Amino acid sequence: RYLPRRMTISFDDYDWNQLQPHKVNPVLRKSAWFVNSVESNAQGAGANIAAASRKGEVTWLERFEEKWEEEEIMHGQIFREWFIRSDLASQQEVDAQIQNVRDRGFPIGADFNELQAASYGWPQETAGMYFYRSMINYAKQSENGYDPVLIKILTDVMSQENFHRYIYFMGMKATLKYFPQRFDKEVVHTLVNFQMPGHHMCPELQTEAPRLAKEMGLPFGALRHELKTGIVELAGNKGLTQVVLALGAKKVGDFLHVSK
């Protein structure tokens, strides 16, 4: 019922005359280049989500995917516009990076069903939300001030990531309410094998994400707590134990530090 009233981000939402790119330091610029890259192939991910929804004729995921893709496409377009208008990268540089990402395709989730798609989307959107929030807080703490246009973009995108996180989680919760037996194989397997999409889309930047996040003060403890609390809400302490045990030789941090 929420989806028809939601509006995508628009170029007209921003006063581009207020750009102050000289206040964007190298850490923030690199972080913006990273998110510009991972937001630039929503069509690839959207196709996999749509395919997952069709496997079980899951109408909530199908309706959500249509709005999700609209919003995610605009995330990429807004970041592209910001870089070009700020003269922090040329149009040729930005478009070349976007094309490089799209040329890699998006194989993650190509074989997911609806519960697996939600089980991947929930931690991914949660980590994204935390990363955007850390960018906002870091920028606002700068002694030199901040670019108000970038702050508004980050705030708008973070808000939509938060909504996406909520929808994925509630979809998981509703499914597991009626089919709790699916947690063991589908949810646990997806969480244990989880990797952020940047590992495939832009691996050269994803490897720098933990350092950038740390420099910007991303609260890893709060992120871990939210994910652990979510698993307990979905399947109790037993479910959390299943996830931890299933990690086996992997470090628990491989999942709980999902920005890695």
Q: How would you portray this structure in words?
A:
- Helix content is 70%, strand content 0%.
- The model is unreliable at 251-260 (pLDDT under 50).
- Helix 3 packs antiparallel against helix 6, helix 6 (148-178) runs parallel beside helix 11 and helix 7 (182-192) crosses helix 11 (220-246).
- The chain has 260 residues and is mainly alpha-helical.
- The chain starts with 25 loop residues before the first helix and ends with a helix.
- The longest helix has 31 residues, at 148-178.
- It is built from twelve helices and no strands.
Secondary structure elements and pairings:
Layout: H1 26-38, H2 42-55, H3 59-86, H4 91-103, H5 114-140, H6 148-178, H7 182-192, H8 198-201, H9 203-206, H10 209-215, H11 220-246, H12 253-256
Briefly characterize the structure.
Helix content is 70%, strand content 0%.
Number of strands: 0
Query: Can you tell me the residue ranges where pLDDT is under 50 for at least 5 consecutive residues?
Result: 251-260
* Number of helical segments with 4 or more residues: 12
Query: N-to-C SSE series?
Result: HHHHHHHHHHHH
Instruction: Tell me the fraction of residues in β-strands, as a range.
Output: under 5%
Mean pLDDT: 90
Give me the secondary-structure category: mainly alpha
Terminal Cα span = 35 Å
Q: How would you characterize the largest beta sheet?
A: none
> Helical amount among residues, as a percent range?
over 70%
Tell me the overall shape. Answer: globular
Radius of gyration: 18 Å
